[in-house]
Design a protein that fits this description.
It is built from 3 helices and 5 strands, in the order βααββαββ. It is α+β, with helices and mostly antiparallel strands and 81 residues long.
Length: 81
């Protein structure tokens, strides 16, 4: 479990091969990986490497990805519709 960052991905995003590939491609610190049947997986050991760049938010539909800061004010970053 990460100490500083958590990432939540909506089931419909995680199970979409196209969206999964986009998330893997844009993340500069490899938080996302492709699993069986191109389903999205979160690489837990890389979560704290998140730079809060919001690239994952830009390629996912609104509410599809949430980046949660687990420190300070515990801000949640997400794209809204």
């Amino acid at each position: 479990m990460a100490l500083f960052i958590d990432v939540e991905v909506a089931p419909q995003v995680a199970s979409s091969p196209d969206l999964a590939r986009k998330l893997v491609e844009v993340c500069p610190v490899n938080i996302f990986a492709l699993g069986a049947k191109d389903a999205l997986e979160i690489v837990e050991k890389n979560l704290d490497e998140c730079t809060l760049c919001e690239l994952c938010l830009s390629v996912a539909p609104p509410g599809g990805v949430r980046v949660k800061k687990l420190y300070g004010e515990r801000q949640v970053l997400e794209r809204r519709g």
